[in-house]
């Protein structure tokens, strides 16, 4: 209660100081989970050797090397604790590194947060992350004291309470001193306080619900094999609609009876994990996927124990949750991640001429940055072998007719292809197949009018809708360019990219990006939902009512790139089939930061400039972050320790610090290696080889291609680092993974350049954090030291 009072008081005080309307519409999103102090990431060969595991033969099977290594780590515990190597493990053909993902199994049941990622090359363990439960396995049904689980969630909310008190203290101090800078600081407090109160409302509003349900509703307890009470309680906490909460609670028995379960669940499954599907769950848009699992819970004394949970995948209108809820009553939410956040190739029977698009070309960030021009469909023989408008009939969810005999591919004349399904979504719903798309007919010319004009507020939406053809065309073009760019840097089918058809090159298909333009579910925002490989990602772009005429986020490339990059970082971190590795705290923040960094890198030029994020759409020169990205500390003073400041608990603020650090890393590499006018690698020849170019260093045998210039090299190292880092990485883990990526790509020639750049903003070898909490709290210390070899 005290936390709610502080939140209300602070919001009221700060709101009276600043009448500024926040540029981003808040979307309710749950996101929290235990911090695992026993989790480790090792990227130093000395650390791995210390574990008494020596390199195997260079031609040894990487999976066998991993098995030997896992057995060595588990030791005697293997009798009671086992594991399974996940099917999304793969060997990256560009680097030769095999990325192996492992899930812990106890009593035949998966430990949902018991993850290990092992990176192997030439018989050697390059790095590994490990969050396996190392204690004594419990009885089959693990039922710890319910008060421990309650204390866990209470800690999350107490951390928020402390942060709100910090805000109030800062505000009072400024008010008493009446300093000249007070207005600016309080305006910043306005935005951060609003975020904190929203965060608290989303995650702590129903803190006491589990106890209340267990005491007042016996039917809410249920049997451990019946997940419906646990799921229904989760929906009370998850729905953003107050009226839906009242409906669920007032008609609890009725909703419980309507929820039907299909599939067969085994308490001790053999082989692949088995799932149940729960239909008629209130406020969901598809059946909920459920499975029994264990999760790890820290006790107040620092020990870790396993708890039996129901693991749910819940798709809602604006959220897509992966949640762990205790199987025993009282049913408490233990962790929750919102996935929204953010062979030979067949030859087409009828070759299709490349399409043309009247768009803001790749590299132009927004309408203030340049003019629209006609751009050709970018046929990249590696990334999009049959172009952007072709996909197999059997992989096309929109095709309802009869497939022509002997035909394989369907050529479309709309913004619907193998990588992206782009359309309007004025109704703001999840349905998309029948939504409107521009049709170029037989001309393949997507040349449509874009003429926004000042209008009365009542007509603003109509004006925006009048140029929907240009909007969807732009979104389709930008999204496909991102797909092809990231493909060339290693976001391929094996790595979990987004494609309906994978051309027999591995990975799970059927997951093109559903890109919704002018989404009607809100204003001043954008989001991307990233389920595991094989299920469509969903991007929602919004109109921004920050100016007259409205500004259309679909035309700001940086926002589209940022959102798409959530799919990149989520599927590369922890493996394509694990979308729960970037849920909150520093991990969730870096998910935002990578998007900002990549968007800024793509728009940058040889003539250095500072860059804000989202400035055009938000109609704010400083953009939607606290600071522009800059080399100048007076423009952007962010350091690692900035994460301890008031207002830096949110993932966007955390991400801003990470993106700023990566920006300095990139600039250091540019100073060392120069600048490429394009981040896009040269298009391959018809035989798949690359023409002579100045993009890569000369090829050296079977070694991976090394980008020649600093800006292209930095993008490659950041993406390679995502593949090497563990699930739920910290800033330290991600930093070390990038350093390791350089070691494997260039032989470590940029070792000191990277460390010196990281240390500029406090992420040196002596940086530290004490008391890290799930939402990003803790006491951090900047570190400006570099390895001894770099100071010689």
UniProtKB/TrEMBL annotation:
The lineage of its organism: Eukaryota, Fungi, Dikarya, Basidiomycota, Agaricomycotina. It is found in: Secreted. The keyword ATP-binding does not apply. Zn(2+) binds at residues 342, 562, 566, 592. It comes from Lentinula aff. detonsa. Residues 1-19 form the signal peptide. GO terms for biological process: proteolysis. Belongs to the peptidase M36 family. Its EC number is 3.4.24.-. This is Extracellular metalloproteinase. GO terms for molecular function: metalloendopeptidase activity; zinc ion binding. Its cofactor is Zn(2+). SUPFAM superfamilies: Metalloproteases ('zincins'), catalytic domain. The active site is at residue 563.
